[in-house]
Write a structure and sequence with these properties.
The chain has 255 residues and is of the alpha/beta class. Helices cover 43% and strands 22% of the residues. It has eight helices and ten strands. It has a seven-stranded mixed beta sheet with strand order 2-1-3-8-7-9-10, with helices on both faces. Helix 2 links the parallel strand 1 and strand 2. Helix 1 crosses helix 5 and helix 2 packs parallel to helix 4. The N and C termini lie far apart (104 Å).
C-alpha cells in the first residue's frame, strides 16, 4: 500500500469520524432544545392541549376570524414539533378548568368568555374596558393606573402571558388583544422567541408582556414592540378587581 493511498484512507476515516461527531453533537443539541420547549409549553410526547378561540361574528356558521386562524396555525406547528395533539374549541363551549392540559387562549377579552375568565382569575391587575365608560374606547387596557387605548391601524396593544396554577399544572398561554391582528402578532412573537423564553422562564415561570403592534394597516402583524413586562402589576392581588372585592368584604364586616 502506497503512502498516498494510506493518507487518503486516513483522511477519509477522519472525515467520517468528524461527520459522525458533528451529527451526534447536532442531534444532542436538537434534543435538548426540543426537551426545553416541551417543558416550557407543557407538551411532553403524546400529550394533549386545547386551542380556544372565539367565533367570527360576521359569519352565520361557526368559523374563526382570519388572523386568529393564522395564529392557530403557528401554534399548531409548535405543538406538532413537541409531539403533542391539539384540539380546537370555541370559547363558549364548556371546558374543564385550567391546569390539566396546556391551553392556548386567543382573542378579544371583551368577547371571548374563556379568555375573560382567565384574565379575571389570573390577571386581576388588568382591566379591559368594554367601551361604555366615558372617554374610554372599547378594548382599552388599564394596568397600574395607565390606560392603553387602541388607535386602529396605527397603534394597538396585546397582552402575551404564560401562567400556571401550581407546580404540577400545565400552563395556559393568553394572547389578549385589541384587534385580531394583534392576536396573531402576539403568537408570532411567542413562536419566534420560544427558545429565549424557554431558557429564561423554564417549566414553571410565569410572565405577562404588554406588546404594541405598530402600523398594522400597512404592515399587518410584523412590527411588534415590547412596551413593558407587566407581570407583577398584572398578577398582583392588589389589582383593581381584588381591591374592590377587599373593600366589599371590609364593608360587610363593618355592617
Amino acid at each position: 500500500m502506497t503512502d498516498t493511498l494510506t493518507d487518503l484512507i486516513a483522511s477519509a476515516a477522519a472525515l467520517i469520524v468528524g461527520l459522525a461527531a458533528g451529527w451526534a453533537v447536532h442531534s444532542a443539541f436538537a434534543r435538548r432544545k426540543r426537551a426545553r420547549e416541551q417543558l416550557f409549553f407543557g407538551l411532553p410526547d403524546g400529550s394533549e392541549c386545547v386551542l380556544v378561540t372565539h367565533r367570527d361574528s360576521t359569519s352565520a356558521h361557526w368559523s374563526i376570524p382570519r388572523h386568529d386562524a393564522l395564529a392557530l396555525l403557528s401554534i399548531a406547528s409548535v405543538v406538532e414539533n413537541c409531539g403533542a395533539h391539539p384540539e380546537v374549541a370555541p370559547h363558549d363551549t364548556g371546558l374543564q378548568g385550567f391546569g390539566a392540559r396546556t391551553e392556548f387562549c386567543i382573542g378579544d377579552p371583551t368577547a371571548h368568555r374563556r379568555l375573560a375568565a382567565h384574565m379575571a382569575n389570573l390577571l386581576p391587575g388588568v382591566t379591559v374596558h368594554p367601551g361604555d365608560d366615558p372617554g374610554m374606547e372599547r378594548g382599552t387596557f388599564t394596568i397600574a393606573g395607565t390606560h392603553y387605548r387602541p388607535e386602529p391601524g396605527a397603534v394597538e396593544h396585546v397582552l402575551l402571558a404564560r401562567l400556571t396554577a401550581g407546580d404540577d399544572s400545565r400552563p395556559v398561554f393568553l394572547a389578549a388583544g385589541q384587534r385580531p391582528v394583534t392576536h396573531r402578532a402576539a403568537v408570532r412573537h411567542l413562536v419566534r422567541n420560544r427558545t429565549r423564553f424557554a431558557r429564561k422562564y423554564g417549566s414553571q415561570g410565569s410572565f405577562c408582556l404588554l406588546l404594541k403592534v405598530v402600523n398594522s394597516q400597512s404592515y399587518g402583524p410584523d412590527l411588534v414592540e415590547l412596551v413593558a413586562d407587566v407581570t407583577k402589576p398584572a398578577t398582583s392581588s392588589a389589582g383593581p378587581r381584588a381591591a374592590a372585592k377587599a373593600a366589599t368584604k371590609a364593608a360587610a364586616k363593618d355592617d
